[in-house]
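Following up on my earlier thread - several people asked me to post the actual chain instead of describing it. Fair enough. Here it is, all 185 residues.
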Amino acid sequence: MKNTVGIMGSASNDFLASNTALKSKAEALGRAVASKELLLLTGATTGLIYLAGKAAHDAGTLHIGISPAANSLEHVERYQLPTDACDLLIYTGFGLKGRNVVLVRSCDIVLFIAGAMGSLNEFTIAHDEGKIVGCLTGTGGVADQAEYLMKTFAKEGPAQIFQHDDPDSLIGACLQALAQKPKQP
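Reply from S.P.:
Thanks for posting it. Predicted structure:
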Protein backbone atom coordinates (compact mmCIF):
# COMPACT_ATOMS: atom_id res chain seq x y z
CA MET A 1 0.00 0.00 0.00
CA LYS A 2 1.33 3.45 -0.89
CA ASN A 3 2.00 6.05 1.75
CA THR A 4 -0.39 8.97 1.72
CA VAL A 5 0.82 12.54 1.81
CA GLY A 6 -1.40 15.58 2.10
CA ILE A 7 -0.45 18.99 0.80
CA MET A 8 -2.07 21.83 2.69
CA GLY A 9 -1.56 25.57 2.71
CA SER A 10 -2.60 28.68 0.89
CA ALA A 11 -5.63 28.35 -1.35
CA SER A 12 -5.67 32.06 -2.20
CA ASN A 13 -5.13 33.05 -5.82
CA ASP A 14 -4.70 36.74 -4.97
CA PHE A 15 -0.91 36.88 -4.83
CA LEU A 16 -0.04 34.16 -7.36
CA ALA A 17 0.09 36.38 -10.45
CA SER A 18 2.97 38.39 -9.01
CA ASN A 19 4.87 35.62 -7.21
CA THR A 20 6.43 33.27 -9.75
CA ALA A 21 8.96 31.95 -7.21
CA LEU A 22 6.17 30.73 -4.91
CA LYS A 23 4.30 29.21 -7.86
CA SER A 24 7.49 27.38 -8.84
CA LYS A 25 7.92 26.06 -5.28
CA ALA A 26 4.35 24.74 -5.26
CA GLU A 27 4.87 22.95 -8.56
CA ALA A 28 8.22 21.58 -7.37
CA LEU A 29 6.51 20.23 -4.25
CA GLY A 30 3.97 18.42 -6.42
CA ARG A 31 6.68 16.95 -8.63
CA ALA A 32 8.65 15.86 -5.53
CA VAL A 33 5.57 13.96 -4.28
CA ALA A 34 5.27 12.31 -7.70
CA SER A 35 8.94 11.31 -7.71
CA LYS A 36 8.46 9.38 -4.44
CA GLU A 37 5.42 7.49 -5.77
CA LEU A 38 3.14 8.66 -2.98
CA LEU A 39 -0.63 8.90 -2.97
CA LEU A 40 -1.58 12.59 -2.78
CA LEU A 41 -4.52 14.03 -0.88
CA THR A 42 -5.50 17.70 -0.93
CA GLY A 43 -8.54 19.76 -0.09
CA ALA A 44 -9.40 19.84 -3.82
CA THR A 45 -8.95 23.58 -3.73
CA THR A 46 -7.36 26.56 -5.46
CA GLY A 47 -4.13 28.54 -5.08
CA LEU A 48 -0.83 26.90 -4.19
CA ILE A 49 -2.59 23.65 -3.34
CA TYR A 50 -4.09 23.50 -6.82
CA LEU A 51 -0.67 24.15 -8.42
CA ALA A 52 1.04 21.47 -6.32
CA GLY A 53 -1.76 18.96 -6.88
CA LYS A 54 -1.91 19.63 -10.62
CA ALA A 55 1.88 19.24 -10.95
CA ALA A 56 1.76 15.94 -9.05
CA HIS A 57 -1.22 14.74 -11.08
CA ASP A 58 0.44 15.69 -14.37
CA ALA A 59 3.59 13.80 -13.27
CA GLY A 60 1.56 10.62 -12.74
CA THR A 61 0.56 10.72 -9.08
CA LEU A 62 -2.88 9.56 -8.04
CA HIS A 63 -4.42 12.74 -6.58
CA ILE A 64 -7.50 12.44 -4.40
CA GLY A 65 -9.34 15.61 -3.46
CA ILE A 66 -11.30 15.77 -0.22
CA SER A 67 -14.09 18.25 -0.89
CA PRO A 68 -16.04 20.27 1.68
CA ALA A 69 -19.09 19.91 -0.58
CA ALA A 70 -21.82 17.29 -0.50
CA ASN A 71 -21.74 16.77 -4.30
CA SER A 72 -20.08 17.94 -7.51
CA LEU A 73 -22.55 20.77 -8.10
CA GLU A 74 -21.94 22.24 -4.66
CA HIS A 75 -18.17 21.74 -5.07
CA VAL A 76 -18.15 23.92 -8.20
CA GLU A 77 -20.99 26.38 -7.58
CA ARG A 78 -21.02 27.04 -3.84
CA TYR A 79 -17.33 26.57 -3.04
CA GLN A 80 -16.06 27.55 -6.52
CA LEU A 81 -13.45 24.80 -6.48
CA PRO A 82 -11.74 23.19 -9.48
CA THR A 83 -12.16 19.60 -10.63
CA ASP A 84 -9.36 19.18 -13.18
CA ALA A 85 -6.36 18.45 -10.92
CA CYS A 86 -7.82 15.43 -9.08
CA ASP A 87 -8.29 11.86 -10.23
CA LEU A 88 -11.03 11.36 -7.66
CA LEU A 89 -13.08 13.72 -5.52
CA ILE A 90 -14.55 12.58 -2.22
CA TYR A 91 -17.51 14.72 -1.20
CA THR A 92 -17.71 14.97 2.57
CA GLY A 93 -20.55 17.48 2.92
CA PHE A 94 -18.80 18.63 6.12
CA GLY A 95 -17.86 22.17 5.07
CA LEU A 96 -14.32 23.51 5.16
CA LYS A 97 -13.40 22.76 8.78
CA GLY A 98 -15.05 19.34 8.81
CA ARG A 99 -13.28 18.48 5.55
CA ASN A 100 -9.97 19.39 7.21
CA VAL A 101 -10.40 16.67 9.84
CA VAL A 102 -11.10 13.99 7.21
CA LEU A 103 -8.19 15.19 5.07
CA VAL A 104 -5.58 15.30 7.84
CA ARG A 105 -6.64 12.02 9.45
CA SER A 106 -6.36 10.28 6.06
CA CYS A 107 -2.67 11.20 5.64
CA ASP A 108 0.52 9.54 6.84
CA ILE A 109 2.44 12.78 6.22
CA VAL A 110 1.03 16.31 6.16
CA LEU A 111 2.96 18.93 4.18
CA PHE A 112 2.43 22.69 4.42
CA ILE A 113 3.22 25.37 1.88
CA ALA A 114 2.46 28.91 3.08
CA GLY A 115 -1.05 28.95 4.58
CA ALA A 116 -3.34 31.13 6.67
CA MET A 117 -6.18 30.40 9.11
CA GLY A 118 -7.52 27.28 7.38
CA SER A 119 -4.00 25.87 7.28
CA LEU A 120 -3.52 26.72 10.93
CA ASN A 121 -6.59 24.59 11.61
CA GLU A 122 -5.07 21.73 9.61
CA PHE A 123 -1.72 22.18 11.40
CA THR A 124 -3.30 21.88 14.85
CA ILE A 125 -5.29 18.82 13.77
CA ALA A 126 -2.11 17.21 12.38
CA HIS A 127 -0.25 17.95 15.61
CA ASP A 128 -3.03 16.60 17.81
CA GLU A 129 -3.32 13.47 15.63
CA GLY A 130 0.42 12.78 16.04
CA LYS A 131 1.17 13.14 12.35
CA ILE A 132 4.51 13.64 10.65
CA VAL A 133 4.38 17.26 9.51
CA GLY A 134 6.61 18.87 6.91
CA CYS A 135 6.77 22.63 6.43
CA LEU A 136 8.19 24.03 3.19
CA THR A 137 10.01 27.07 4.54
CA GLY A 138 10.50 30.26 2.62
CA THR A 139 6.87 30.18 1.52
CA GLY A 140 5.32 32.26 4.33
CA GLY A 141 2.36 31.69 6.58
CA VAL A 142 1.95 28.57 8.69
CA ALA A 143 4.84 26.82 6.94
CA ASP A 144 7.28 29.50 8.15
CA GLN A 145 5.70 29.90 11.59
CA ALA A 146 5.62 26.26 12.72
CA GLU A 147 8.61 26.63 15.02
CA TYR A 148 7.10 29.75 16.63
CA LEU A 149 3.74 28.01 17.02
CA MET A 150 5.30 24.98 18.71
CA LYS A 151 7.31 27.15 21.13
CA THR A 152 4.46 29.53 21.92
CA PHE A 153 1.74 26.90 22.25
CA ALA A 154 3.83 23.97 23.46
CA LYS A 155 1.96 20.73 23.80
CA GLU A 156 3.45 17.29 24.25
CA GLY A 157 2.52 14.66 21.74
CA PRO A 158 3.86 12.21 19.18
CA ALA A 159 3.75 14.64 16.23
CA GLN A 160 7.05 15.18 14.45
CA ILE A 161 7.65 18.48 12.68
CA PHE A 162 10.22 18.95 9.92
CA GLN A 163 11.18 22.13 8.12
CA HIS A 164 13.15 22.58 4.92
CA ASP A 165 13.23 24.98 1.99
CA ASP A 166 13.75 22.19 -0.57
CA PRO A 167 10.73 19.99 -1.43
CA ASP A 168 12.76 16.82 -2.08
CA SER A 169 14.72 17.16 1.17
CA LEU A 170 11.56 17.89 3.14
CA ILE A 171 9.73 14.85 1.80
CA GLY A 172 12.82 12.71 2.30
CA ALA A 173 13.04 13.67 5.98
CA CYS A 174 9.33 13.00 6.46
CA LEU A 175 9.53 9.60 4.75
CA GLN A 176 12.51 8.62 6.87
CA ALA A 177 10.56 9.52 10.03
CA LEU A 178 7.56 7.57 8.77
CA ALA A 179 9.72 4.49 8.19
CA GLN A 180 10.90 4.68 11.81
CA LYS A 181 7.48 5.35 13.30
CA PRO A 182 5.88 2.39 15.08
CA LYS A 183 2.94 1.00 13.11
CA GLN A 184 -0.46 1.60 14.66
CA PRO A 185 -2.99 -1.24 14.83
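The two ends are 15 Å apart (CA to CA). That should answer part of your original question.
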